[in-house]
Task: structure prediction
Amino acid sequence: PSQFLVIGTGRFGSSIASALYDFGHEVVAIDEDEHALEPVMQQVTHAVVMDATDEEALRKLGIGGFDTVIVAIGENLEASILATVAVRAAGARYVISKADGQLTARVLAAVGADEVVRPEHDMGRRLARQLASPAQVSALELGPDHTIVELETNESMMGTLADLRLPSRFGVQVIAVHREDELLVNPGADFEVYLRDRLVVLGRNDEIAALRDLLA
Amino acid sequence: PSQFLVIGTGRFGSSIASALYDFGHEVVAIDEDEHALEPVMQQVTHAVVMDATDEEALRKLGIGGFDTVIVAIGENLEASILATVAVRAAGARYVISKADGQLTARVLAAVGADEVVRPEHDMGRRLARQLASPAQVSALELGPDHTIVELETNESMMGTLADLRLPSRFGVQVIAVHREDELLVNPGADFEVYLRDRLVVLGRNDEIAALRDLLA
Ligand SMILES: Nc1ncnc2c1ncn2[C@@H]1O[C@H](COP(=O)(O)OP(=O)(O)OP(=O)(O)O)[C@@H](O)[C@H]1O
Ligand SMILES: Nc1ncnc2c1ncn2[C@@H]1O[C@H](COP(=O)(O)OP(=O)(O)OP(=O)(O)O)[C@@H](O)[C@H]1O
Result:
């Protein structure tokens, strides 16, 4: 199990802290406000009330011993930046900081954050992608050119895989078919596709887009 | 292209609105505060200053014509709930509402939201999962039992695919290998695995977990 330090137990910080703890890792949570710390106290290894901009106090905490430090301070821009600086100065190995916008993100990266997250912005883009491709249940990007997607079939997609000729028509490969809660791997040419089957398809992005357009 | 109505152009709402517009869809953005609307005015089809709890005004907007309505009002709990009620009453076909916590989420679902999103909470869990499985670059869940993962190799994973015998040892299938920005699909048994290759593997969740433990 790894060791994590989460600074700031707002909604974002609390969610990370309790999830990491659930996954079996050691989590120390810090917040200057004990009321913010309370709801998460039973869901982490240790909870400490302290000011995370205090470099000396962070050093005493043995900050170098954590695999990753997450600075999840939100609204208070100054505290978020100062805490990132303090955490780096006190010897943190890897720092992920939360930003509220693009400008803050650049500042945090400049003062030492290894990674910057923008929860509302990133979730917004993710939701937009799902809404923009409703036939697409989920996707895994593989490099800049390829994706594996799970696409729900419609009436235009009935017949056997041999009938559908997806590789010759679109250049994509059907890796598996997700039917109800079952997964049928490497379906053969005579596999009969039913309505509401989800085809797990690997292809180049333009090929996938063409197939998606057919299904949309 | 589909039609979307986004209510509330905070960070979450603005991100969804501009992303959907980028993806080629029609987006109408609403906010009662014109200062909140300004930054996003060039990134949507129409921007309207209005109170989204006004059912009559929503009806005049032709709310039934949108494929999905997103209620992205945040801090003001009352407005978020009232807007969701008003949007439903005015004839919205599909409603996604943003919630700040679990309790609000239940209320929004009860008053008619088809889907409820909690950006900070959901991103927190997502980040925790990535931190908890560092060898795993990304993953696609297929049903309750299977996953396709992209796993980075280490020194324990050198040799040809025939040497590694991943199917017989773990029960998983190597669908492709992601090397630099290239994707090599259906690698043969004599394929030589290099350090920092990313194996794209399909398997049952327990099989994937066993392989991940070997790599961790
Ligand atoms: N200097 C500091 N030291 C420790 N904790 C701090 C400091 N400054 C702010 N915090 C804490 O960070 C937490 C998160 O910040 P805040 O609630 O302002 O952000 P938020 O963007 O609303 O968070 P979220 O979106 O995660 O709910 C708060 O609980 C706050 O007490
Ligand atoms: N009744 C209303 N009608 C229209 N817009 C509203 C109404 N009430 C609030 N809003 C708008 O909703 C937007 C988002 O709300 P707010 O900024 O409070 O949430 P937030 O949680 O901080 O948002 P985000 O996390 O998306 O930045 C604001 O721009 C606000 O003006």
